[in-house]
TrEMBL record:
Residues in the signal sequence: none
Domain CUB: 7-120
Residues covered by the F5/8 type C domain: 224-360
Keywords: Disulfide bond, Membrane, Phosphoprotein, Transmembrane, Transmembrane helix
Cross-referenced CDD domains: CUB (cd00041), FA58C (cd00057)
Entry-linked Gene3D superfamilies: Galactose-binding domain-like, LCCL-like domain, Spermadhesin, CUB domain
Name recorded for this polypeptide: DCBD1 protein
Domain of life of the organism encoding this protein: Eukaryota
SUPFAM superfamilies to which the protein is assigned, alphabetical: Galactose-binding domain-like, LCCL domain, Spermadhesin, CUB domain
GO cellular component: plasma membrane
Membrane topology of the entry: Single-pass type I membrane protein
Main location (coarse class): membrane
Annotated gene: Dcbld1_0
Record's keyword annotation contains Disulfide bond: yes
Species of origin: Falcunculus frontatus
């Protein structure tokens, strides 16, 4: 939990999380405070990674400070500010509960703070902010929850990889190997860079188009260890829909926006529901039960500037009983962010994957 008027981006879960001061990485405001209470499962201990602690220096950190307290053992860490920084980037506690207290008085400079944490069950915490150039060619890192909305850029996409200057855990969310609301272990390799990294919109993040880098990062999905074809494009045996649009254009010509036009490779116009239809759906029949790890959507075409901006997913194994997709949180139906124009492709990962024959 967090409380106070100085809290910035915050996502706390029992196993990992990310927190920052208000306005980070811009200058934090005067006369603010925030208190975060981190609670891990019983029997585990918390590991805190200091991504950035940039608070205006003062004697004994009196003007602005970061203080950590372990109520179970009575241990305190800090106070920290620019002239009194943590001695190591990773703090290993012996407690499942830690209180993080940030406060400021009048000051002129300072980015504030960025921290992430994980439990002792996930000792290889990578932090949310950047990749380490000293890492080996193939490695595994635990990414905390909350990496999606931190400051920093990513270049590239899941298929070609990411420039090694990209924010590592943010790139992992873009690649669809972890869910931002939970975090998780990622496996990646460091390979020779390429000339150009194309931008892509995926999982609510827009990567940038970037030029040559010496190395690139490639993420590897765990499912590929079990099923080598987990990244293959699945064949759709049949398309079905709640309705379709029978258009008569200005010249009196008919155009049928039927369900079979929904295939991504179809030329010309796509599928569209009947105008004014509520709760419209498109159904994909995969022929047999398959492991579905994600979906790619695109607008109708440049000529017909139509596209879907958001959607829900439901699945069925028999075509009769349907289950809404709720993602990794499991609390409510997940809303997927769709397209912003009719030209670009947008991909969204299913974490966890769907096992079904029918997808709507």
């Amino acid at each position: 939990v967090s409380a106070g008027n100085g809290c910035g981006h915050t996502l706390l879960t029992p196993h990992s999380g990310t927190l920052s001061s208000k306005n980070y990485p811009g200058t934090y405001p005067n006369h603010t405070m925030c208190c975060w209470r981190l609670q891990a499962p019983p029997g585990t201990s918390l590991l805190l990674a200091f991504g950035d602690v940039d608070l205006e220096p003062s004697e004994h950190c009196a003007h602005s400070s970061l203080l950590l307290a372990d109520p179970q053992t009575g241990t305190a860490y800090g106070p920290y500010c620019r002239n009194s920084v943590p001695s190591a980037p990773l703090l290993v506690t012996n407690s499942s509960t830690v209180t993080v207290l940030f406060n400021s008085t009048s000051h002129r400079s300072g980015r504030g703070l960025l921290l992430s944490y994980a439990t002792s069950q996930h000792p290889g915490t990578g932090g949310a902010w950047s990749s380490d150039p000293l890492l080996t060619m193939c490695f595994s890192v635990y990414c905390p929850a909350g990496c999606k909305d931190i400051h920093g850029d990513i270049w590239g996409n899941p298929s070609q990889g990411y420039r090694d200057t990209s924010v590592l855990c943010k790139a992992a969310v873009h690649a669809g190997v972890i869910a931002d609301e939970l975090g998780g272990q990622v496996t990646l390799s460091r390979e020779k860079g390429i000339t150009l990294y194309e931008s892509a919109f995926a999982n609510g993040l827009h990567s940038k188009r970037g030029s040559l880098s010496e190395k690139r990062l490639l993420f590897h999905k765990v499912c590929c260890l079990l099923s080598p074809a987990c990244d293959d494009v699945l064949e759709v045996v049949a398309f079905n829909a709640s309705s379709w649009w029978h258009e008569v254009d200005a010249l009196g010509q008919d155009r049928a926006w039927v369900a079979k036009q929904a295939a991504l490779s179809t030329t010309g116009h796509s599928w569209a529901a009947e105008p004014g239809a509520e709760a419209a759906w498109l159904e994909l029949d995969l022929g047999t039960r398959r492991n579905v790890t994600g979906i790619i959507t695109k607008g109708s075409s440049e000529q017909h500037d139509y596209y879907v901006t958001s959607y829900h997913i439901s699945s069925s194994r028999d075509g009769k009983n349907w289950r809404p997709y709720r993602g990794s949180s499991g609390q409510e139906d997940k809303v997927f962010e769709g397209n912003a124009d009719s030209q670009g492709e947008v991909s969204n990962a299913f974490i966890p994957p769907i096992v079904a024959r029918y997808v709507r």
